[in-house]
Amino acid sequence: MDDRIEIRVGDITTLKVDAIVNAANNQLSGGSGVDGAIHRAAGAEQLQQACQLIGGCATGQVVKTKGFGLPAKAILHTVGPIWRGGGHNEPELLRSCYSECMTMAVREGYRSIAFPAISCGAYGYPTEQAVAIAVEEVDRCLQSFLCFRQVIFVCFDEAMASLYRQAT
Predict the structure, then answer these.
(1) 2, 3, 11, 35: which is the annotated catalytic residue?
(2) CATH 3.40.220.10, applies to 5-167
């Protein structure tokens, strides 16, 4: 596994990286979990106004806002798939979340990025499968995108971090 990948337990909103990834909903309206935490930490009113101007985001895609009150320069909002048993393109859509975020980061000149566990909370994606996809796709992207200094998988607890460590 690429040595630019790190696994941490903690709060993604506190990281001083070029971009953090938000596991957003299609309306970019803020919500629970990491999405709500990012909105609160960035400044909910400012971030909500920026998201309303964008208008939404399709599943598997990414849009960008400023970081506002965060130490990160930018927030990359991506919408992971809701788990519906695996037969509705969920793996492809989840893989797209990671590759689209990495591609946008390169396009914007970012060299460090932090990801939460996309789709693993309220969207119900089986964690072991989601982690495997995340690690595989980020590693694949890093083979092409040599400009990255650091990719951090930020986990909400040690159990999730352990799954990432096993996958790397």
Answers:
(1) 35
(2) yes
